[in-house]
Amino acid sequence: MAGPNLHLDPTVGCLFIGVLFAILFYSCTCAQTLFYFRTYPNDRPLLKGLVAFLSALDLVTLILDIEYLWDVVITNHANIAALNAVPTVWIVEFFLASLTFFLVQCYFINKIWALLAGKSYRYWLTGVVAILALACFAGGVGVCYISSLNHGLMFILTKAEIPACLQQVAAVITDIYITLSLCVVLRGSQSGFERTKTLLDKLTIYAIHRGILTAAVQLLHFATYLATYHNSSFMWMIFHIPSTKIYVNSLLAVLNVRHHLRDAKPTVQAQRSVDFVDLENFSSRYTSPATRSRGEVLGPASHARIMLTKEVIRDDGDAH
């Protein structure tokens, strides 16, 4: 005899789907983390520490999500009232997810800052996106604070609407801003050498793909939250739970793709004109003016590229 239909699809069902996606993406995190540490042992300790810390955060958030699912499905089996209270593990998970978003965004903001060395607009361009990233993180902290005051689901959905919307909107704008900034800066660093232009085009494509992915998941999170928060649906968790894994994988993909660029065989002319273009550094090292023809006069664009070469920050890539 079939039992009563408890109509758990919008709640437990969405939570279950979100955890399934999180497990899938975390397997990608594990593979990319192992690949990173095996392929780039000479990266800076700070960068390797960031990768290890983000991978650990990814694992902890997954464990907390599974614990939340266990609490609803197993511990409180057939207890509908349990869905009206948010456990502490979810509050901790939400804070760690907000921290993950912030750290990944700060990494790319730092890349923009490094590439804009010597530019007059360096401070305001990175300052604006830094404020947006802080607003995103502040929204997440606000949701956690309100949730800690009262674990009731309806109380949280009602009182945390503004900080939750702030976090998601700021995250979308931040990711789009980072993507556009990287595209503009990379395009502005183009040289006259075909290999350099090809590599910088690839960097731009990777930046666009990364931005589209992270911004899309945050936008879907925001849209489903606005559409369903008033009826206690958990549909937004389908996008929230795996979102941290998507962010971490987007950063690891940027780091791990470097070997593809390095393995490309340059022509003789390219070997004389370009030392290396590093996706992690988002920087290019060009030849000195001595390699140019004697009668060539350096224009402003060429001078800017040489200045960029001199001021490039030695970052996390292998020494060349």
How would you describe the overall organization of this protein?
It is a single chain. The chain has 320 residues and is mainly alpha-helical. The chain has a single domain, classed as Rhopdopsin 7-helix transmembrane proteins, CATH 1.20.1070. The chain has helices at 9-39, 45-75, 88-115, 122-149, 153-159, 161-188, 194-228, 237-256, 258-263, 268-273, 300-311; strands at residues 274-278, 283-286. A hairpin with a 4-residue loop joins strand 1 (274-278) and strand 2 (283-286). Helix 1 runs antiparallel to helix 2 (45-75) and helix 2 runs antiparallel to helix 8 (237-256). It is globular and about 60 Å long. Residues 265-279 and 281-320 have low confidence and may be disordered.
- Gyration radius from CA atoms, angstroms: 23 Å
Structural class: mainly alpha
Q: How many helix segments?
A: 11
Total individual domains: 1
CATH architecture: Up-down Bundle
Q: What's the SSE pattern?
A: HHHHHHHHHHEEH
Instruction: Give the CA-based shape.
Output: globular
- Extract low-pLDDT stretches: 265-279, 281-320
Q: Count of DSSP E strands? A: 2
Which strand order spans the largest sheet, edge to edge or round the barrel? Answer: 1-2
CATH class: Mainly Alpha
Average per-residue pLDDT, rounded, comes to 79
C-alpha end-to-end distance: 71 Å
Key traits:
320 residues, mainly alpha, Rhopdopsin 7-helix transmembrane proteins, two-stranded antiparallel sheet, 11 helices, 2 strands, globular, transmembrane helix, DUF6534, membrane, transmembrane, DUF6534 domain-containing protein
